[in-house]
Amino acid sequence: MSHQASAVSRQLNLALLFALLCAVPLCAQAPISYRISFPEPEHRWAQVEILFPDLGVRPLEARMSRSSPGRYALHEFARNVYDVHAFDGGGRSLTFDRPDTHQWTIAGHDGTVRLTYRIYGDHVDGTYLAIDTTHAHINMPATLMWARGLENRPVRISFTRPAGTSWNVATQLHPTEDPLAFTAANLQYLMDSPVEFSDFTLRTFTVNPNTVIRLAMHHTGNASDVDQLLGDVAKLVREEGAVFGEFPSYDVGYYTFLVDYLPYASGDGMEHRNSTAVTVTGTFANAGQRPDLLETIAHEFFHSWNMERIRPRSLEPFNFDEANVSGELWLGEGFTSYYEHVIMQRAGLASIGETAAELGRTIDAVVRGPGRSLRSPVEMSRLAPFVDAARWVDRTNWDNLYISYYTWGEALGLALDLSLRDHTNGRVTLDEYMRAMWRAHGRPAASGSRPAEGLVAVPYTLGDARDRLADVSDRAFADEFFDRFVEGREVVDYTRLLQRAGLVLRKRNAGRAWVGDDRLSFGGSSARLVEPALFGSPIYRAGLDQDDEIVMLDGEVMSSSAQLDRVLQRHQPGDRVPIIFLRRGTQTNGSLTLEEDPRLELVPTERTGRALTDAERAFRAAWLSSRQ
Ligand SMILES: [Zn+2]
After folding, report:
1. Distance, CA 299 to ligand 1 centroid (Å)?
2. 589 C-alpha to center of ligand 1: Å?
3. 22 CA to middle of ligand 1, Å?
4. How many Å lie between the centroid of ligand 1 and the Cα of residue 224?
5. Ligand 1 mean position to 117 CA, how many Å?
6. Nearest CA-CA partner of 38 in 125, 155, 172, 129
7. 320, 365, 361, 173: which is closest to 254 by C-alpha?
8. 261 alpha carbon to ligand 1 midpoint, in Å?
9. Ligand 1 centroid to residue 327 C-alpha, Å
10. 269 C-alpha vs ligand 1 centroid, how far in Å?
11. Which residues contact 25 (CB under 8 A, 6 or more apart)?
């Protein structure tokens, strides 16, 4: 925590120093130039050439990033760099030192360094680099070296088409007269600006009344498929605009969805200040994948307010050397996930049954999540560097120790929305809270100095988020909500709050016997526990844990889930049954006490055999009907 704080203040001090230095004419701020070409896209590498001018006499410290904006784990992008060469302004070859795995230090130059390297990339998502004969899908931190101390220099970047292609560039970078050349004001904005370089389909629409939205889509379908999708995207965009009452003023004059809808893409969505990279595994031919695509689009566009402008101070500025740690991801990510479902419903793209099912799964995961006994949503947020696309080889116990800040934050968004409506009799909703956050922290100040491009003027702290809630409700309500549910580990009474909207939270299999949610792999003549036993489950209480193999339960051989079901069907919760299991080859005889299946589901009242009351219908409409 203190380490993080010192890293951030070091960056701020550097920024300040540069601001002072560059106030005098001595500092020319000569732009850094990048050129990226793809001589052999079939072999999935790019050639990068960087010109660093006006360096003075200090050694150049060229670095690869270890992290990427919006992704919180370390990713060590230097891994894919090879064939590095450095030259001075006269073309003389220079040597370099490698003080650590991320840095190339080049001394003895003449004030100019030209750096060239190759980089390999074959992963289509929001974090990495992917090159093939259909596109170059470029996330900047995974691709570009940058120089320490030159973070505030402007940047010019140009792309060279692979031979025989007519690819174009879609990006939030600033355009120039050259359609393949772009600029960025500084390193923060450059790194935040992904690029799709391909034969994408481009569509544009305008909302409210002059915000321009672009959809650049790389896909395997027809242009008419994109036109069909465009209508749904526009509905989502308009509903989200209605939550905040206005659209952000996008720095380049438009917002761009960079969508890769490909069988070889990984499922991902990554928010940026004026764009998003959305990658979905699939094709237009499979209509079943459409909700995934639309939900990701709804989620990422909501971030153009909540995260890109209503931004926690813990993420500002983004640190490319270390993981940023934030205790506010339950709000930045979790509330965004809550709105993803609300907006799908308001836009008419999800049914009440589908929305209830989504919210029900979320409530179930949080209310019954073992991790809730250990950490609050704030503390879960701070674990992001360990879980956000992080990789490890040793076993962990995350199913017990962790609840995702997406999941818990989504449940908190629902809790706060319903609690505000309940507390104020419908006068104040979560939309008002988001607008209060937007006015105080997101919308640029009408007067005063504007921050550097890519940064926000008034990032918020956890205390600010609490105070804004007090602003729209009252101090006692805000303090109780934050103390108990955000910084504490309690959950609201979802059953009562949801009942007002005509939604029934109930046990999915009331009265049925259950051994736990523990994942069992049936095979041969036993059922193996493939993850750590979940705290307090019947299997856990019986003394079993990961790798133990249940051979017999209540006299039945456990070779299939059907056999387990047979045992459960003939017993009542509370019954004690004999269990025989193998642990590393040794047999143990014990007993297991069955419990009632506690799993929850959320269903519309009208599906439970009772009609909606007028009050429930009105509450639901005020909450989930279109704002258009
Ligand atoms: Zn997100």
Report:
1. 6
2. 47
3. 36
4. 29
5. 32
6. 129
7. 173
8. 18
9. 15
10. 7
11. none
How far apart CA 436 and CA 443 sit, in angstroms, is 10
Rounded to whole angstroms, the Cα distance separating 114 from 124 reads: 29
Concatenate the DSSP letters of all residues of 453-521 into one string. TT--SS-B-HHHHHHHHHHHS-HHHHHHHIIIIISS-----HHHHHHTTTEEEEETTTT-EE--S--EE
Residue at 624: amino acid letter = L
> Which residues is 175 bridged to in the sheet?
182
Q: How far apart are CA 617 and CA 500, in angstroms?
A: 9
Residue 393, both tokens: 């080889």
Ligand 1 centroid to residue 125 C-alpha, Å: 14
Q: Which helix (H) or strand (E) holds 387?
A: helix 384-387
Q: What is the DSSP code string of 257-312?
A: EEEEEETTPPPEEEE-SSEEEEEEE--TT-GGGHHHHHHHHHHHHHTTTBTTTB-B
Residues in CB range of 522: below 8 A, 6 or more apart: 558, 559, 560, 561, 564
The environment of the single-atom ion ligand 1, i.e. residues with CB closer than 5 A, is: 333
Residue 305 alpha carbon to ligand 1 centre in Å? 11
Give per-10-residue mean pLDDT for the chain (628 aa): 40 46 55 98 98 97 96 94 98 98 98 98 97 98 98 97 98 98 97 98 94 97 94 98 96 97 95 97 90 96 97 95 96 98 98 98 98 98 92 93 98 98 97 97 76 90 98 98 98 98 98 97 94 97 98 96 96 98 96 98 97 97 95
Compute the distance between CA of residue 484 and CA of residue 490 in angstroms, rounded to an integer. Answer: 6
Enter the tokens of residue 625: 């009907």
| Closest CA relative to residue 278, chosen from 286, 262, 287, 288 | 262
Quick one: which of 176, 157, 170 has its CA closest to 274? 170
List of residues 6+ apart from 215 with CB closer than 8 A: 201, 202, 203, 204, 205, 226, 229, 230, 233, 256, 257, 259
Q: What was the pLDDT predicted at 390? A: 83
pLDDT of residue 537: 97
Nearest to 329 by CA among 280, 271, 374: 271
Distance in Å, CA 259 to ligand 1 centroid: 15
- Residue 140's identity, in one-letter code, is M
